[in-house]
Amino acid sequence: MHLRISNRRTQHLFILWALAAVISFFGAAGTYAQEDDDAAALFEQGQDAHEKGDLVKAVELYRKAIEAAGDLPEAEYQIGNAYRSLGKLDEAERAFRRAAELRPEWSLAFAALGSTLVTRGKYADAGPILKTAIELDRNSF
Predict the structure, then answer these.
(1) How far apart are CA 19 and CA 12, in angstroms?
(2) Distance of CA 56 to CAs 14, 48, 89, 95, Å?
(3) Which of 25, 45, 58, 115 makes a 20 to 30 Å CA pair with 66?
């Protein structure tokens, strides 16, 4: 599934907004604030590398953001996108599953996982995942 630039920009803005919300939630404690600042910077660097097509570097930076922040479904999701673009569908599936596990109300993670399963020919597995994505957000494409 290829996204038009306008959709990708919207997606990136949503992800950055969600990351900012996570950071502001945990930003009250001093040590956590520093770790979250580091995670946000690493995530943003990963986004920059991703947009420039340096997918290997992007994955590395997303993983560092996860190390700095702990669970970070937005980074897992972007890792899945990078791996899918690299043709590493096993890794993409794992990353999308992790994003969906970390944020079970996030339809986009389920949609990406379902799409990856379809690409891999795992239709029986994809059906319930895609149904979940639709149920979570009936207005989602």
Answers:
(1) 10
(2) 23, 12, 14, 14
(3) 115
Give the C-alpha distances (Å, rounded to integers) separating 22 from 4, 37, 61.
27, 11, 18
CA distance 91 to 21: 27
**Closest CA relative to residue 40, chosen from 11, 10, 74:** 74
84: its two tokens: 């899918």
Task: Choose among 133, 139, 138: nearest CA to 112.
Answer: 133
pLDDT number for residue 17 = 54
Map tokens 């097509």 to a residue. 53
Question: For residue range 36-80, what is the model confidence (pLDDT) as tens digits?
Answer: 689 999 999 999 999 999 999 999 999 999 999 989 999 999 999
CA within 13 Å, CB half, 126 = 14
